[in-house]
Write a structure and sequence with these properties.
The complex is a heterodimer of chains A (183) and B (196). With 183 residues, chain A is mainly α. Chain A has helices at 5-31, 37-49, 51-67, 79-91, 103-121, 128-145, 153-157, 160-164, 172-182, and one strand at 72-73. Chain A is elongated, with a radius of gyration of 48 Å. In chain A, 8% of the residues are buried. Chain B has 196 residues and is mostly helical. Chain B starts with a helix and ends in a 5-residue tail after the last helix. The chains are: A mainly alpha (183), B mainly alpha (196). At the A-B interface, helix 1, helix 3, strand 1 and helix 4 of A face helix 2, helix 3, helix 6, strand 1 and helix 7 of B.
Chain lengths: 183, 196
């Protein structure tokens, strides 16, 4: 279907407006010479048909030229000396993390400490060594339990080791001793 | 920078010599005060020096350095600690002799009138740049004067490429309008018949 004169004009205008909006992303890059060939061609095609954008591009070129004329300031002669003084004062002083020689070493130390704490907090597991140390303890307990009853009351009452022994509830010897001391 | 990281002091001197002038100019155009610009530039080098051992070459050194500089400048502008409310021609005349000697105007001409015209022109441009929002100003300065790549500037300003292009277009459009009298006068003078 063929468009009427007004519709055709509006269609073209909208297309141009759309293209003009697209120039926002491309025009500066085109003018500073950093546009890719495809982008450059697109801008040139648009500038050939759009007087507004052509005028803006000319203004931008003039603006870039004007901006080039800004004076250049040189740092003061004492800039370097002042910076060195600041480095000597502040730069040489290590911060909190500066005391750590390297991150790897810090990590290794942290892991070591964590493992030590973890191992220390673990419940002791019976191993062969502890088994061998338990046998004499049991033998010792048996020896103490089977000791002949001493007749001397003074000795028994002052024999602290006997009072520290756990008394099994069904132990007749301990029961008798308890009765005797309570009497 | 990798040599500096390895502890080579001479390489730091080289970095200093190479980048101090661009850095001071960038910061001066951001904060419009030469003393503050120098102070901030020293702060940038100090931070580079202190962070040298942690430097990772994931980006260009200039990107890293100008990122530090831009952040410092934006903070300074935001704090408004050092910013002068207005810089007039009188202030430009009243600056110290040392500073005046250090200003290099490219088109220096022998006549006083031409020097004054050039200075007035520079002041007008600086004022127009100064009136831009801080982020647009940084974008223009990094694009126009440091000639950094688009992706570098986008990294420094922490925005996307397309956002940067839009930012630059708006900034230049604002400058075009602000400096229209200057640009029109140049158009007229360049199109005027000569030798009359």
């Amino acid at each position: 279907m063929r468009l009427g004169g007004y519709d055709a004009h509006m269609s073209n205008t909208k297309r141009f407006e759309k293209n003009c909006a697209g120039m926002e992303d491309k025009l500066v890059q085109y003018l500073d010479g950093r546009a890719k060939p495809a982008g450059r061609r697109a801008v040139e095609d648009h500038l050939a048909i759009c007087s507004n954008c052509r005028s803006r591009a000319e203004d931008f070129r003039a603006l870039f030229g004007a901006l080039d004329d800004l004076p250049v300031i040189s740092p003061s002669p004492w800039f370097d000396a002042s910076l060195r003084a600041r480095i000597a004062v502040v730069g040489g002083r290590p911060g909190f993390w500066g005391w750590i020689p390297s991150p790897r070493l810090a990590f290794a130390v942290a892991v070591l400490v964590a493992m030590s704490v973890w191992l220390a907090s673990m419940p002791r597991i019976a191993n062969n060594n502890s088994a061998t140390t338990r046998v004499p303890a049991e033998a010792e307990f048996g020896m103490i339990r089977d000791l002949p009853v001493l007749e001397n009351y003074e000795v028994i009452s002052k024999f602290d080791a006997l009072s520290e022994l756990p008394a099994p509830p069904d132990d007749p010897v301990a029961g008798e001793m308890k009765n005797e001391t309570s009497e | 920078m990798l040599d500096v990281k390895a502890g080579d002091e001479q390489s730091f001197e080289l970095l200093l010599r190479r980048y101090r002038t661009p850095l001071v100019n960038f910061l001066y155009r951001m904060v419009r005060d030469s003393a503050v610009a120098e102070d901030l530039a020293q702060e940038v080098f100090l931070r580079v020096y202190r962070a040298r051992k942690d430097y990772a070459p994931s980006a260009k050194f200039t990107t890293w350095m100008f990122r530090i500089a831009t952040n410092l400048a934006l903070n300074s502008v935001r704090d408004n600690r050092y910013r002068q409310s207005e810089i007039s021609m009188d202030q430009a005349v009243s600056v110290g002799d040392d500073e005046r000697r250090s200003m290099e105007v490219r088109d220096l001409t022998p006549t006083v009138e031409q020097v004054l015209v050039a200075r007035s022109r520079s002041e007008m441009i600086l004022r127009a740049i100064d009136a831009l929002p801080a982020k647009q100003r940084a974008a223009v300065l990094l694009h126009k004067y440091q000639e950094l790549d688009y992706d570098e500037i986008a990294r420094i300003l922490e925005c996307s490429d397309s956002a940067l292009k839009s930012l630059l277009f708006r900034a230049y459009e604002t400058l075009r309008i602000a400096l229209a009298p200057l640009l029109n006068a140049e158009k007229v003078s360049s199109s005027a018949p000569r030798g009359v």
